[in-house]
Amino acid sequence: MPELPEVETVRRGLEGVVVGRRIAEVQVLGRRTVRRQSPAELTIRLVGRSFTTAGRRGKFLLLSLDDDAVLVVHLRMSGQLLHLGGPERPPIAAHTHVVLVLGDGTELRFIDPRTFGEWFVSSDIDSRGVPAELAHLGRDPLLEGLPTAYLAAHLAGRRAPLKTLLTDQRIVAGIGSLYADEICFRAKLRPDRSGGSLTAPESASLAKSARAVLREAVRSRGSSLRDLRYRDLAGSFGSYQDRHAVYDRAGEPCQRCGNRIVRLKIGARSAYCCEGCQL
DNA sequence: CGCATATCCTGACTGC
DNA sequence: TGCAGTCAGGATATGC
C-alpha cells in the first residue's frame, strides 16, 4: 500500500526519467483510472507538453507541465508506475490502465489491479504549487516537517484513536496504515489511544517518531510487502519491510519487550501493536 | 463539527 | 482440488 516513503521513492525515480521529456502519446486503456475528467480531455491536455518538475504532496505525485498545469497521479492501494527504457518493449501487462510514450521513446506505464488509483490534470494551482483538488491536505512531514505543536494541536480534544488521526490526510499527508502502526510502536503508544488522552511528552514522542520512521523508510526506499506489489519505477523492491517492528507481525515476539505482537481492530481496519510496551 | 460506517476493487489467503 | 468466504486499505460519501 504505497504511502509517503514509497511515493517519494517513485517521485525520485520520475525526476530522472520524465523531467525535461515531452509526452508524445497517451493511451488510456482502463475505464476507471481517469474519472475526474474524460480520457479524451486528459489526453489533449498531456500530448505535446513537457514535464518540468516531479513533485509530491502526501501520497499524490505532482508532475508539472510546461503550460503550468499539473498531472496528478495517486497509486492508492495497488497502483504501480513502471518506466520502460530499453529498446525492447515488453507486452502490456494485465491491469495496465495508462501508457505515456515519451519523446525519447521510453514509456511510463500505470498498472493497477484494484483500479483505485487515479490520474487527472489540474490547472488550478496555488502559489505553493498545490492543485486546488488537494487543498485539503495537511502537513507533509518530509516537505514541511511535523512540529510537535502542530500535531498536538490536532490531537487535542479528539476522542478518535491515534491511528485514525495519524492517517487522516487533512492532518498529516502521507501516513497510511502501515506507517501509522510503526510510528505508534516507536512512540510506545497504543494506536487505539484517543488523541485527546496524550500528554505533552507523548505528543512530542509521536511527532518525533513520525519524522524518524518516515525518514528511515524513505532511506530504505519504502516497504515491499508479502505480495511484492510495491516496486519502484525500475521494478526494484524496497527494504524497509525488514525493519517493521509490528506491521503484519501478529504472534511474533516484540523486539523491545518480548511480548507477542497482537492485531487489534480499529474501525474496520487492522492495527498491529505490542501490548507489553505500547501504552 | 466529530465520529462511525459503507463503498469502490481484485488477488491472496483460509477453511471446509 | 475446488470453491466460498474473508481480508487487505486510501479516499470519499453519507448518516447520526
Describe how the helices and strands are arranged:
Elements: H1 4-17, E1 23-28, H2 39-46, E2 51-57, E3 60-65, E4 70-74, E5 80-84, E6 96-102, E7 107-111, E8 118-122, H3 141-144, H4 148-155, H5 162-166, H6 177-186, H7 200-219, E9 261-266, E10 269-274
Antiparallel strand pairs: 1-6, 2-3, 3-4, 4-8, 5-7, 6-7, 9-10
Helix pairs in contact: 1-7, 4-7, 6-7
The structure holds a DNA duplex (16 and 16 nucleotides).
Structure write-up:
- The strands form three sheets. The chain has a four-stranded antiparallel sheet with strand order 1-6-7-5, covered by helices on one side.
- β3 and β4 form a beta hairpin.
- The radius of gyration is 20 Å and the shape is globular.
- α1 runs parallel beside α7, α4 crosses α7 and α6 crosses α7.
- It is built from seven helices and ten strands.
- It has two domains: 131 residues, N-terminal domain of MutM-like DNA repair proteins (Alpha-Beta Barrel), CATH 3.20.190.10; 127 residues, Helicase, Ruva Protein, domain 3.
- It has 279 residues and is of the alpha+beta class.
- It binds a DNA duplex (16 and 16 nucleotides) through loops.
Summarize the structure in short.
With 279 residues, the protein is an alpha+beta fold. It is 25% helix and 21% strand. The strands form three sheets. Strands 1-6-7-5 form a four-stranded antiparallel sheet, covered by helices on one side. Strands 2-3-4-8 form a four-stranded antiparallel sheet, with helices on one face.
